[in-house]
Amino acid sequence: MTQTQQRQQALTPLLRTEPWDMLIIGGGITGAGIAREAAKRGLQVLLIEQRDFAWGTSSRSSKMVHGGLRYIASGDYKTTLLSVRERERMLKEAGGLVNEMHYMMPHYKGKFPPPWIFNNLLRVYDKLAGKRYFKYFKKDAFSPLNPGIKQDKLLGASQFSDAVTDDSRLVMRVLGEALHDGAQAINYLKAEGLLKNDQGLVVGAKLVDTATDQHPETYDVYAKVVVSATGAWADKLRLQAFSEIPTNFHKQIRPSRGSHLVISQERLPIEQAYTLLHPVDKRALFVFPWENRTVIGTTDLDHPPLDDQEVGITNEEVDYLLQAVNGLFDHTQLSREDIISTWAGVRPLIFEGGDGKRVSPSKEKRDHSVWLDNNLVTVSGGKLTTFRLIALDVLKICQQVLPIDNNAAIDDAVFSNPVPSNDKFAQLPAPFQYRLQGFYGRQLDQLLELADDQELVPVADSNTLWAEVRFAARYEQVIHLDDLLLRRTRLGLILPQGAMIDSVTDKLQQICQQELGWNQQKWQQEVDRYKALWQNYYHLPAA
Questions:
Q1: What CA–CA distance (Å, rounded) separates 273 from 294?
Q2: Which pTM was predicted?
Q3: pLDDT digits (tens, 9 = 90+) for 238-253
């Protein structure tokens, strides 16, 4: 099947003549979570995304599924309690995709926080989780196991646990569960405007196919309720729901940019995460292992009003992150030459703009908000960890305009975990079995059926199998090369030159030609497009 045929098949749900129960605009983790919960309740659901699934914040997070330790320090025990419970839920349901990670916080004489304060926070953190993770290591016990850590005035280190994930694969996994329950999802379909009835109520949206620049098709899609889950872009669509802007419209999205660096494990070899306070502004940062690489992040800066362009790191942020990590590790002295890739995402923080007060982005709450405006339900804010709870809150609001049986006897599990039946599964090493089960769930047999033995091997020195690349190209609505290398897989973030290296490109081209029907000209166009994109937004910024 060529890419054109795949696209025609993907667009088939738009031919439906009856109104959908729910139209979800936004294909990040929030939209995917809503689709999952709505489809589970028997609703006819269509999710659309103007770019690629997880294109926005949901592929550019810090990859952490965490309880929000800092919320305890600010007295927000409820947010922490809900978050740690969801973290534990995902560790149980989606192992291999969401994995426990130990974090170390070194303590230094005369530096905040002293061990006794931090350790008391950790005891409360574990109590809320209902599980003990916390340990304290004195210097003599900590230093031999962490030889690279700065030793001068070191007192010891506190260990706690959270989790890490591949955020874009998490979106695809949740979407896969929604599709299994009857939902439909289409990427590269932009909501250009809302459709309203004579009473001014939102009844649908005008959609434009953005997969092609040539004569894009438009579709009028109707639904009993429209949900905007567009994250940092939420205000734009929400304003369209009003004939005139009400005077009490004061809640706004505050875009906040978080940027990250990716370093090789050879240059910064770590087996667990470290948290530290930046020497300049005392913000908490993390250094953690991810996909056989080391990640440094994150910043927290106000970002200009968003358009539809990519977001990239700035030179100031590069220097800021390097300064922090070089201050924690002795003799490492990382430089720009050590950086394999970067990424930057925009958090949709919610602030009350009516009082004119503005705190630093790091001090804004990470709570989500849900609004109902003339049949348009808008949700924004919140954390990756609590996507299920956000979805449930959205459904409660949707009940005001759409009957939803929330009392039905429905399995609370987000993720299903059938045992793979394909014989090829047993041939894989145990770590790959665990990872693939977490990444693909009930789709794993389909992936294995497609793969031959030569493709059940990693791409270069990554954890990604060639079979995953082929599966994504055939079944996961890949339109552009960056969909494949930056979101379906993360090869563009962890391999040199965005994975455009000789050991990868020949096989990659073969798969794209076989599964997408790309001829030589199309392949070269996509390569040129991808290289420019990666250089501008996923590498180092111009000096």
A1: 9
A2: 0.95
A3: 888 887 776 666 557 7
